[in-house]
Amino acid sequence: MVRPSRARNLDPDGAAMTTLPATSKAATMLLTEPPAPVGALSRRALLAACGATAFLAFTFGGLACASAQGTDAASVFVDQTGRALIAAVNGNGSTAQKKQALQAIIDRDVDVADIARFCLGRFWRVATPQQQQQYTALFHEVLVNNITGKVGEYKGVTFALSRSAPRGSDTAVSTIVTRPGNAPSRVDWLVVNGAGSPKIADVIAEGTSLRLTQRDDYSAFLARNNNDIQALIEAMRRQMAQPS
Amino acid sequence: MRWLKFLPIAGAISIALGLGACATAPNASDAGAIADYRETNDPLEPTNRVFYAINNGLDTVLLRPLAVAYRYAVPQVIRTHAHDVLANLDSPVLLANDMMQGKPRRAGDTLMRFLVNSTVGVAGIFDVATDLGWPAHDTDFGVTLALWGLPSGPFLFLPVLGPTNPRDATGFGVDIALDPLTYVGKGTVVTALDYTRFGLSAIDQRAAVLDELDRIKEGALDPYATFRSLARQHRESEIQDTRDDDRATVPAWFARPAPATSTRTAPR
């Protein structure tokens, strides 16, 4: 019934790997770089190699320092964004005003384009530039709709910052979110330090990643629709057209 | 007669494994599709989707309305205490699993919770223990098996049980065997109480995720795939959290402080 060799693919490190495709791919590429021919390993090459190692160690040391600062900055960023979100939800404007405020925060602090690309997975490269554009625009709408749809539910929510830790080149910031009448739940925020300002790349609620779940949904949909990206775009469009 | 309610599950497992309607593996030339197929690890997908449809239908006509009614008719305070009573009844199974997982601090929490809540907390109606420093946690034999190194096996969607896998379905059966209440007496009253407990805990659990499930079903293009993904991620994080829970067992009143360098990372 249980075949360890195959099942091991997924359990439990496999999933962790799928959440970090960029870094693991880079690592594999580094490792599979063709080795230099043995004869070329002269004394000079050896020296150069030593120099390179020292240089690498230096750079990585510097990087480690930078990322320690990065985790602090990421915590501050998540704290600010979280406060802004809660202020928007608990404000005393109309629902439409609240949605507008939330949309502004999403546009400013969430890396929507990057999440959209991640969620399309391997199909991103197959899509035509026009499809990519249509899809990203729709994805933005879906995401905003999903978040603003919860305005009513999230009244009275509080959160507390917990530890933060570097994850690859990004930072994962943990928070404990408490909703009235519910047990406190752990929500992790993946913060990327892109061009200039930090941005949220993923939200992991009780161990379930938003973007990974979304990607699995889309890839299952595509698999059942002949891998037709246009079908996905149409389905998303229909979803947005529904009154909710 | 408790075992009666597991007939459908046993039946479902044997049907799922016996019929063996297998998903057709994608064309070998499409590397991306092959990788997706492996990653999904759902070779029984067609059968699983049938059971998902059945479960979803039952949920729509039976369990969800019951949960909505429960939340509507019963005040929050009573629902909370009902949940506490049900949770307290699970303590013996929880304790057994904590011990088999080699998690003494968790086992201590469970034991103290059971002793305090069953007495001071009046048969578990009041959760006094949490405030006294013995927080609640949840676990089961599926987690125990995972910590023992058993892989999950392929994804399964079973009636009643929902999204699971051979390891966790086995764990579910073992947990029932571990429950002392499984072996308590015979007669109409006991049977009635048994079914009440089973029914109430189903409604209690369903009511807790009412809004979330509604929203997932609404927002997903392929709800089955979305639940598969969520169930798997959630399970893996639950197992990881248990693995990482290496709190010291030295009581707070013990003079010698725990060494400061106890930031040991759990072996993976």
SS summary, helix count of chain B: 11
Gyration radius over CA of chain A: 22 Å
Q: Could you tell me the mean pLDDT of chain A?
A: 73
Strand ordering within the main sheet of chain A: 1-2-3-4-5
Order of helices and strands of chain B: HHHHHHHEEHHHH
Low-confidence stretches of chain A: 1-47, 53-68
Termini of chain A, distance in Å? 44 Å
Share in β-strands of chain B:
under 5%
Largest sheet of chain A: 5 strands, antiparallel
Tell me which protein chains meet in the greatest interface and how many residues each side has. Answer: A-B, 42 and 41 residues
Strand content of chain A: 15-25%
Biggest sheet: strand arrangement of chain B: 1-2
Helicity level of chain B, as a percent range?
A: 55-70%
- What shape does the CA trace of chain B take? globular
Oligomer: heterodimer
* First-residue to last-residue Cα separation of chain B: 41 Å
Which structural class best describes the helix and strand composition of chain B? mainly alpha
Number of strands of chain B: 2
Describe the structure.
The complex is a heterodimer of chains A (244) and B (268). Helix content of chain A is 58%, strand content 16%. Chain A has helices spanning 4-7, 13-19, 21-31, 43-90, 95-109, 112-120, 129-148, 210-223, 229-241; strands at residues 158-167, 170-178, 185-193, 198-205, 208-209. In chain A, α4 packs antiparallel against α5 (95-109) and α6 (112-120) packs across α7. Chain A is globular and about 45 Å long. Mean pLDDT of chain A is 73; it is low at 1-47 and 53-68. Chain B contains 11 helices and 2 strands, in the order αααααααββαααα. Mean pLDDT of chain B is 84; it is low at 1-5 and 262-268. Chain B has a two-stranded antiparallel sheet with strand order 1-2. Chain B has one domain (2-24, 42-244). Helices cover 62% and strands 2% of the residues of chain B. Chain B is mostly helical and 268 residues long. In chain B, α4 (76-89) packs across α9 (188-208), α5 (91-100) runs antiparallel to α6 (104-119) and α7 crosses α8. The chains are: A alpha+beta (244), B mainly alpha (268). The interface between A and B is large, with 42 and 41 residues.
